[in-house]
Amino acid sequence: MLEIARVLAGQPVDAWIVWFDGEEAVQEYSDKDGLYGSVYMTRALFAQNKLRDIQAVIVLDMIGDKRLQLTIPDPMRPRKTEPNRWSAPLVQQAFAAAHSLGLRDYITLLNHPMVDDHSPFDWNRLPAIDLIDFDYGNIPRDNNFWHTERDTLDKCAPESLRIASQIALELLRRLEFLKWPPK
User: Which of these, 33, 89, 145, 149, has the minimum number of CB atoms within 10 Å of its CB?
Assistant: First the structure.
């Protein structure tokens, strides 16, 4: 993320890099438990009347896996709201960005909804995308390293961070193609 910040520092782009904390629910994910950092940010921006200034939210989560397979939660299968047509163009541009970089094999559409730090922005009808490797383990689709003592540095690769960062930076470059608000 620091490398993304360095790259963006030399660009004529107004972008924030935010580290959210408090994602995990204390008991069970709900409107009142979990996603504390991103919920706080959306509420603070709303209170300052700045929420609508956001053109897009790109969340990078769990992107260091040696066996990188980024998934994007399908915006047409949301968990809390109606299908979020406001995020669909962002998802399309993410796939186009990956394809243009020759990295299309690293990105897929998740076939079920997911609540993560992009969700509070999505719930406020902002274009939000979650680039997440949610297949973190040695058993396909089991996620068996996630939140365990086996979640160690030897399972991570700088190359995966580079790939995810390149896709995110290319997506930022393409934001001029997005129309907001959607019709």
Answer: 149
